[in-house]
Task: structure prediction
Amino acid sequence: MSEVDWDSRARQGVGFQSVIDPADRSGLKNGLIDRIQWDHIGPWAERRRSVLDFGCGIGRFAQRIVAAGASYCGVDASAAMIDSARQLHPGGAVTFLHAPGLPLPLADGRFDGCLTVGVLQCLKTSDGAPLRAAVAELARVLLPGGELLIIEQASASGRFSGSVTDSSTEQDYEDALGACFQVADLRRIRCGSLSRLSAWYLRGGSMLPVRRRIEGYLARHEATIASRSDAAALRAQVYYDVAIRAVKRAGV
Result:
């Protein structure tokens, strides 16, 4: 499993450095990655009434999910991350809970949607037990027919980024989900190596007057590249990001 010290990461500040790439000093790369992820989370959140954000970090999706029309609860194993989230998002519109382990301090069937981004990839072990346990717990707190959306690193090369200690394949995630969920959609949304166009933007994008518009275009551009990548292209990547939407099985 990942040995990242998330409490220390939380103390790097309230920006995306603490929860995406700590080496990104300009914020452009992290902003682009966040946009790519939100492009897939946003339409899903609009169809939800109540969302659990498992491994919420600083709660970067909290206000956007509330604006989409759903109630929001974020949980994280890092007390420092939860402290940062509460400072960033004060008030009663969102809820944050420190949950250092399983089971979660939440009732059965409380949510109709669960989101987890960059969390399950950190639970990979040779026997798969921690990953399966987390999936079963997320199923427990979901209503019948509730949906789980995960965005995680996958690898076709056997390599992996510095944020995890082992690689996970698409099949690893599907196997872990299988007992509790039916996979409804799987999309490759970002290659680990950004395109030349995005690399150009990262070198000088902070000076551009229409930065948000360019960021949105590049987010779609990167997602298109990932979705069209064949097996050989995926093997050439250290890793890529996959978004999987799964529906809770009847009787679970």
Notes: Strands lie at 50-54, 71-76, 94-98, 111-117, 142-154, 181-191, 240-248. Residues 28-45 form the longest helix (18 residues).
